[in-house]
Design brief:
CATH superfamily of the largest domain: Histidine kinase-like ATPase, C-terminal domain
Number of domains: 4
Protein name: Response regulator
CATH class of the largest domain: Alpha Beta
Radius of gyration: 37 Å
Shape: elongated
Largest sheet: 7 strands, mixed
Helix content: 55-70%
Number of strands: 14
Number of helices: 22
CATH topology of the largest domain: Heat Shock Protein 90
Pfam family, one: HTH_18
Distance between the termini: 104 Å
InterPro entries: CheY-like_superfamily, HATPase_C_sf, Homeodomain-like_sf, HTH_AraC, Sig_transdc_resp-reg_receiver
GO molecular function: DNA-binding transcription factor activity; phosphorelay sensor kinase activity; sequence-specific DNA binding
Organism: Bacteroides thetaiotaomicron dnLKV9
CATH architecture of the largest domain: 2-Layer Sandwich
Strand order of the largest sheet: 2-4-5-9-8-7-6
């Protein structure tokens, strides 16, 4: 077809030059139709080829995904056997098999990430990562590749702890390709040092090169300036269209400095993207229901001043603790402690929403702190996240003894920690609410304290409330009517009565006593039989001025206005 079109075009030109001008439009029309036919057929063929390649690629990736289940079924029993007592010869073989299965699993994960890139190329899944840990993991995964050329790969960071916000699935292939290019074009048995640094807006990894022309061929200059005319120029991946595209999506840049002989890969610390999937934040609303939940579960020492949950952070490493506090402070109110004993005292007094703790602390260990919190009636409901090292020999026993809700291995991603915090706090609130609904009914949390009092006055079914109400009414004229007197009448200790009453009503007994006095005063005033001056003594309040103030605070009107209203 291609030769037919070319031949027809040449024929048309020759005929045009030798024939009359009337044939010119016909000849050009014929040539144009043939050319258009070729373009359409070529376009259709390309579309079919692209569709076939996409289907083939999808089948390939789905096949690898199906491999993960048998790999897991192999990995789990092998690791279990390795952990048990077995001969050293067998352990050596098992270790080799487990390492290679882990390597295969990593490759499968990358393929799944590649599939996500192909399916959702423009959607960004931005998560927070500790930069040093993230880069060290990348370097560690490429050490085998470097070992093939007997190259020693190292990373040096100019920071202790630093947070960056990235889409790991999209940025990882770029970093790996960047480092692999350096490894592949470095002489055998050399040492490669990657420098990682952080400024206000950008983080970067930089490598020195000594005029390696082969390495330079991996990149193309994106500007029109000659290399000699500009000290530092922007480049892009010359031999990888995928990495070039991913670099652009992640707002990354490749900078080559010809005077210093350095190649730099740079990304923004906290970029702003469209189509970003955001994680929903935990907020505890200020309403009757939430306040009652807090009150019933011993958060009575202080009312919430913020919708942000309170999180306790316990770690003896001051730098790491400060880093985590900074990471979490935007979403949570964070209180940091160095010692487990200090944290325990604060937790018992304030009842936070969650506790995060390291296993290794000064004095009381994190596993002991978690165990004490979980075995105490007052604090067992508080979620606990415990974290520790992979290499800790007593890790399993500590995990079991701690009774912690979640155990995380260090190093961990900050975003993983945030997700665990969010899930545990939400679940804890839902469990508390479900428990109260189950015990007291679905409408219990919506009932106002005044409504509870009215129900009790009208004859509520709860025997304790009725008994307390009757006792208060019998002795309402006594000014010294106290919680101790009521508890003694019920043959309970003051603490037991107080806690039981708080569980039933969500309020202190003094609130109920005050409400009964005010309701009785209102009843006496409405009867019209008694002047305002005599009412205080009848309800146990001798000071008339004090009575008027408390009556107005309770009903919103004065005693005289209450009579007039009648």
């Amino acid at each position: 077809m291609k030769y037919l079109i070319i031949t027809s075009l040449y024929t048309s030109i020759i005929v045009v030059t030798t024939t009359q001008s009337e044939l010119l439009p016909i000849l050009f029309s014929t040539a144009g139709i043939l050319l258009l036919y070729w373009l359409l057929s070529h376009s259709l063929a390309m579309r079919k080829e692209i569709a076939f390649l996409k289907e083939e690629n999808q089948y390939f990736m789905d096949s690898f995904r199906n491999i993960r289940t048998p790999i897991t079924l192999l990995h789990t029993p092998l690791k279990s056997t390795y952990s048990n007592n077995c001969p050293d010869i067998i352990k050596k073989d098992l270790s080799l098999a487990i390492r290679n299965i882990d390597c295969l699993n990593d490759h499968l994960t990358r393929l799944m990430d590649l599939k996500q890139i192909a399916t959702h190329s423009k959607r960004m899944n931005i998560t927070e990562h500790e930069l040093g840990n993230f880069l060290k993991n990348k370097i560690s995964s490429l050490k085998d590749h470097a070992a093939n050329r007997h190259i020693k790969l190292e990373i040096q960071t100019e920071f202790k702890y630093a947070s960056v916000w990235i889409d790991q699935s999209k940025i990882s292939p770029v970093i790996e390709k960047f480092i692999k290019n350096i490894i592949d074009h470095t002489e055998y048995s050399k040492k490669v040092i990657i420098h990682a640094s952080l400024c206000n807006k950008y983080w970067k990894i930089k490598v020195s090169y000594t005029g390696n022309e082969n390495l330079m061929k991996c990149y193309k200059c994106s500007g029109k300036h000659l290399i000699k005319q500009k000290t530092e120029s922007k480049y892009y991946f010359a031999k990888s269209a995928l990495c070039k595209k991913l670099t652009e999506i992640c707002n990354g840049e490749i900078l080559i400095n010809n005077s210093c002989h350095t190649i730099t890969l740079r990304f923004p610390v906290k970029p702003s993207y469209e189509n970003v999937s955001e994680r929903s934040l935990v907020h505890i609303e200020k309403n009757i229901e939430e306040e009652k939940i807090d009150a019933l579960f011993h958060k009575s020492s202080q009312k919430r001043n913020s919708s942000r949950p309170v999180v306790i952070m316990v770690d003896s490493n001051e730098e790491f603790r400060s880093y985590l506090e900074t990471c979490l402070s935007e979403e949570y109110i964070v209180r940091g402690f160095e010692k487990g004993a200090d944290a325990l005292g604060y937790i018992k007094g304030e009842h936070p929403d969650l506790v995060i703790c390291d296993t290794v602390l000064n004095g009381m260990g994190g596993d002991e702190l978690s165990s004490r919190l979980k075995t105490s009636k007052e604090t067992s409901i508080i979620p606990v996240i415990l974290y520790g090292s992979h290499i800790d020999a007593d890790q399993r026993s500590k995990r079991e003894a701690s009774l912690a809700d979640t155990f995380m291995h260090t190093p961990f991603h900050v975003e993983d920690l945030k997700i665990e915090i969010s899930v545990l706090i939400r679940n804890s609130r839902l469990l508390r609410k479900a428990f109260l609904h189950k015990v007291f009914g679905e409408h219990f949390l919506q009932v106002q304290p005044v409504e509870i009092i009215k129900e009790a006055t009208e004859g509520a079914k709860n025997s304790l409330i009725n008994e307390v109400k009757d006792y208060i009414l019998e002795r309402i004229e006594h000014e010294d009517l106290t919680i101790d007197a009521i508890a003694s009448h019920l043959r309970m200790s003051r603490t037991k009565f107080y806690n039981r009453w708080k569980t039933l009503t969500g309020e202190a007994p003094t609130v109920f006593i005050e409400a009964i006095r005010m309701e009785k005063a209102h009843e006496l005033l409405e009867s019209g039989k008694y002047p305002v001056g005599t009412i205080p003594e009848m309800i146990g309040l001798k000071d008339v001025k004090n009575f008027r103030n408390r009556y107005k605070e309770y009903f919103g009107i004065t005693p005289k206005e209450s009579i007039k209203k009648k």
